[in-house]
Amino acid sequence: MVNSVEYSHDVGQSGRALLAWVFMVFAGYHEHTLDEKNRLAIPAKFRSRMDRERDGVGFFIAPGQPESTLWLYPERQFERIAEQAKSTFTPQPDQLHWEQMFYSLADHVEPDTQGRVVIPPRMLARAGLGREVVICGVRDHLEIRRRDALEKELEQGWAKYHEYVGRVQGSAHDEEVRQTGQSGR
Does 162 reside within a domain? Predict the structure, then answer.
């Protein structure tokens, strides 16, 4: 499933610019095998929904969480997220170290005419990915994982799924009340 989501945040009468963007929602997963040149075919259902103006042509690939994953963002989405990051001449040490690692390890990749991107070997090695992978939609990005690891995590995580839903929905509700001062329940 892939849809577009529009987000806006009105800052009121402060005179600041309206923060707004549109991004594609990625959902579902597909099993793939990397070829001998480390090419990964981006599923057609994702590629066909990408808009050149909104999403760009290529992707940024970056280390994910957990460390055994890689994250693949449409280039415009990656740029929007980078723009939102708090920037300062004297960042806190943790922010500085994270940015130095994250952005130096990230890489821009462009699909070939068949919709394949080359995954840099250093990134495959760092994440411990083999040839058998799964591309998972995770809201605003794609995640590349080892196929066997995903199956194991799904098997173990399903038992706690409803617990996660309750905590996430509760957090979202609490944030809405904090922002609006009104409870929708």
Answer: no
d(CA 160, CA 158): 5
DSSP letter assigned to residue 182: -
In whole angstroms, give the CA distance from residue 23 to residue 55. Answer: 7
Percent of the chain with pLDDT over 70: 80
For residue 65, the enclosing domain spans 2-13+23-148
Q: How many whole angstroms separate alpha carbon 100 and alpha carbon 25?
A: 28
Query: Can you tell me which residue has the tokens 């409870």?
Result: 183
pTM over 0.85: no
What radius of gyration, in Å, describes the C-alpha atoms of the chain? 18
Name the helix (H) or strand (E) containing 96: helix 93-105
**pLDDT tens-digit series, residues 99-156:** 889 899 999 999 999 999 999 999 999 999 999 999 999 999 999 999 998 888 888 8
Identify residue 134 by its one-letter amino acid code: V
